[in-house]
Amino acid sequence: MNYADIIVTVARTLELNVEDVRYSRVLRHREARYICIYLIREKTYQKINQVITWNMIGKLFNRNHSTAIASYNRCIEFAKVDKEFCNKLLLCRESLYY
To answer: Which of 3, 22, 18 is nearest to 62 (CA)?
Structure first.
C-alpha cells in the first residue's frame, strides 16, 4: 500500500472527496488530513527500509514540513480529547489493514 492508497482509503472511509482532503481548509477535511498524515507517518515507522520525510508528507498535501508535523501532533492530541475524532482515526486505521 502506498501513500496515495492511504489518502484514498481515509477519504472513502470518511465519505469525503480525495481532493478536498488534500487541499481544503474546511474542518472535516482538515481532520481527515490529520488522520492521513498520522497514518502515513505511522506506516513508515513500521517499515525500516521505507522512510518518508516530513517534507515529503507535506508535499502530498501541498503543505510544508512544519504543517505536516503540526498536523501529526494535532491528530495525537485530538485523539486524546475528542472521542468522535478518535473513533474516526480507529475506523480509518482498521480500513487500511482489512
So the answer is: 22
* Identity of the amino acid at 22: R
* pLDDT given for residue 52 in this prediction: 85
43: cell is 506506516
Please tell me the pTM assigned to this model.
0.91
Whose grid coordinates read 474516526? 88
- The single residue listed with the C-alpha cell 474542518 is 27
| Locus of grid cell 465519505 | 15
Contact 75, 1 (CB under 8 A): no
CATH architecture of 3-97: Orthogonal Bundle (1.10)
Helix axes 27-46, 65-81, angle to 10 degrees: 100
Q: How far apart are CA 4 and CA 70, in angstroms?
A: 20
Q: Tell me how long the chain is.
A: 98
Residue ranges per structural domain of the chain: 3-97
